[in-house]
Amino acid sequence: MSTAVKYSIVMEQTPNPETIRFITNYQLVPLGKALEFENHNQANVSPLARELFAFPFVRRILIAENYISITKQTFVLWDDILLELRDYLYEYLNSGKPVFDEDLLEKYSVSVFASENKDSNVKKVEPVTVQHNIPKSEAEQKIIDILNEYIMPAVSQDGGFITFQSYQDGVVYLKMRGACSGCPSSIYTLKAGIEALLKKMLPDIVKEVRSDNE
User: Fold this and answer.
1) Which domain holds residue 146?
2) Is 3 within a domain?
3) How far apart are CA 177 and CA 167, in angstroms?
4) Which tens digit of pLDDT belongs to each residue from 32-75?
5) Partner of 160 for a Cys bridge, out of 59, 69, 114, 180, CB 3.0 to 4.6 A?
6) Whole-prediction pTM value?
7) Nearest to 152 by CA among 68, 10, 34, 49
8) Cα pseudo-dihedral 192, 195, 201, 207, rounded to 10
9) Does residue 92 share a domain with residue 41?
10) DSSP run (H or E) holding 118
């Protein structure tokens, strides 16, 4: 008896020409969280990400609520790899294999560090669990609430994810992730979109918004 197909895959372009969003019809990770990986060493908590990095053209992976954003290497065209990735994700998700290891994710959700690799420029990796830093004041909580309600829905539609990092002297520091990372229009999104909204809604709190990606 054949197993009924559970997952479907829809592909969407993002403002970042190097990133495509693969949308599924089921939740992949807990609501409000995401998993971001920039290399194979970071992907120990996600069997899916480890297998995706076996493709030489995969540069970065973001797994959010119901989508997977994949950023490719610049030496390859989407026309040459898009269907291959879609078919692979379709087969993987419908095989019943896990997207992430729950035990490892719980263990390493605070900080995950790869062992130093002399053959790689990446010696330390960030936490794989992507979420806002814990607010330390009422002002920071207000900023996070606005990000969650007004910013994140629009950003996630473009295959991105933005997290609150810190707030000091009127300046909000955010981390641009997924399709937002390296996107040519990310600065416009940051200034014309996020900064303008936060300054309008919290005029006595927010004076400027900066990206913490550098």
Assistant:
1) 132-211
2) no
3) 18
4) 677 888 888 888 889 999 999 999 999 999 888 888 999 999 99
5) 180
6) 0.65
7) 34
8) -130
9) yes
10) none
